From TrEMBL:
It holds the Pfam family CarbopepD_reg_2. Keywords: Signal. InterPro entries: CarboxyPept-like_regulatory. The keyword Signal applies. Residues 1-28 form the signal peptide. The keyword Zinc does not apply. This is CarboxypepD_reg-like domain-containing protein.
Length: 426
């Protein structure tokens, strides 16, 4: 693997003593002031399985006929903000393995909104015919059709990014941002750019003992999971021979039937990838990918992820998981959501117990438009080496995000936010 992959795609952590230098804060782009005469309306709800009543994570909530959307969190909860003059909106809720649901906006104008999703009934006759074929050929066709299936124009995307670091079960760091993505066409070799619109952070270094774990890359860690834009970071067409592909049971999103392909890297001497691809059975579009990095080779995994650490400590990733979801608009697909989770072990010499850190980062596209992007010379893009806990500054009240759609925090993050805000007001 080359240096770019190690630096940009995979998490690059620095475990430092607390005597570090703070970097200069990132300057966010200027946003239009909230207009009191043009307010927005906000709705909340929870997406659950209609039978088990378990929460459904990563359900996409989209305002039909627009590019406004959000996503449900680990508790199935979501919030959605719309312009006040949008009264007759139709809201679409979709999730892998479930029938898509469409509800009028009036449904959300109540307390305790629950959206119960029914699991899709599989009709496998059509799919089983293809599963007798070669799964590698299907993946090759998926890659070949990339330029036709995905957005072929430059686009301006608004996204919400969250990054949390936990030591054990305690939140020790929280960074959040509304970002603007300058997304290049999928056939283009140009990399995407990111500018920060709004951001806030809080870090409790007192809970870190003698080391501080920091995530380098910020939103780029979730952006580079877009394997159709950056296939070189997982498997490009000329690298398919390095993997084995096998069919699994097909599934659905709404009425859309998906092939499911399990994949594994053949060479397992070093950390290797394995996971699932969810491919549309008609257009051969990658709709979703969920994959892991096997880190049984601790020495090699540590070299991949750790850029700096104290003497006398062993640091290695113990669990690495990625997810990318694509969404469709007018027959073209685009990056909609990226998530990365990593569990990190810090083992001190001569100490009986080790420390475990969990790093979670996710980014959801909340609005976008196709546009010829003319980048001003003074555009302040963040760099792929950004460290959010150092390079942004400050926290704010509950109304900080204004009319921006965000990912609702899960219960543990919400508790941490409430504690931070309580400290600010005390």
């Amino acid at each position: 693997m080359d240096a770019k992959i190690n630096t940009l795609l995979r998490f690059c952590f620095s475990v430092w003593f607390l005597t570090f230098l703070m970097a200069s804060p990132v300057t966010a782009k200027s946003l239009p002031a909230e207009n009191d005469g043009d307010p927005y309306q906000s709705f909340k709800g929870r997406v659950i399985n209609s039978v088990t009543e378990n929460p459904i994570q990563s359900a996409h909530i989209n305002v039909k006929g627009t590019t406004i959307s959000t996503i449900s969190n680990v508790d199935g909860e979501f919030s959605l903000k719309l312009p006040a003059d949008m009264q007759d909106a139709l809201i679409s809720i979709s999730a892998l393995g479930y029938q898509t649901k469409e509800l009028q906006l009036d449904y959300f104008k109540r307390d305790n909104v629950i959206i119960a999703m029914q699991e899709s009934v599989q009709e496998l006759a059509e799919v089983n015919v293809y599963t007798k074929g070669d799964a590698t050929a299907l993946v090759r066709k998926m890659m070949y059709n990339r330029d036709e299936n995905y957005v072929s124009d430059e686009a301006l995307m608004t996204a919400f990014y969250r990054e949390t670091i936990k030591k054990g079960s305690r939140n020790i760091s929280l960074s959040e941002a509304v970002a603007e993505l300058h997304k290049q066409p999928y056939f283009s070799s140009k990399d995407d750019d990111i500018a920060i619109l709004k951001a806030r952070k809080s870090t409790d270094y007192k809970r870190l003992d003698t080391v501080a774990l920091k995530l380098r890359g910020g939103p780029f860690n979730t952006l580079y999971i877009d394997v159709m834009k950056y296939p070189q970071f997982l498997f490009d067409t000329d690298k398919l021979g390095l993997y084995s592909f096998e069919y699994a049971e097909p599934t659905k999103i709404g009425e859309r039937t998906l092939y499911v392909v399990d994949f594994k890297q053949r060479n397992r001497e070093k950390p290797w990838y394995f996971g699932k691809l969810f491919i549309d059975s008609k257009s051969y579009t990658l709709v979703k990918a969920v994959y892991n990095l096997n880190t049984d080779n601790r020495r090699a995994a540590s070299r991949m992820f750790t850029s700096k650490k104290p003497n006398g400590v062993k640091v290695y990733p113990d669990n690495v998981q990625y997810q990318v979801d694509y969404r469709e608009n007018n027959g073209k697909w685009f990056y909609g959501y990226g998530k990365a989770d990593l569990e990190f072990v810090v083992n001190w010499k001569h100490k009986i117990f080790n420390s475990r850190y969990k790093v979670h980062s996710e980014m959801a596209i909340t609005e976008w438009e196709v546009a010829n992007i003319i980048v001003p010379h003074n555009e302040e893009f963040i760099k792929p080496a950004i460290v959010m806990v150092d390079d942004i500054d400050g926290f704010a009240d509950v109304d900080f995000w204004g009319s921006n759609n965000i990912i609702e925090p899960d219960k543990s993050i919400q508790n941490a936010i409430e504690k931070i805000q309580k400290k600010i007001t005390d």
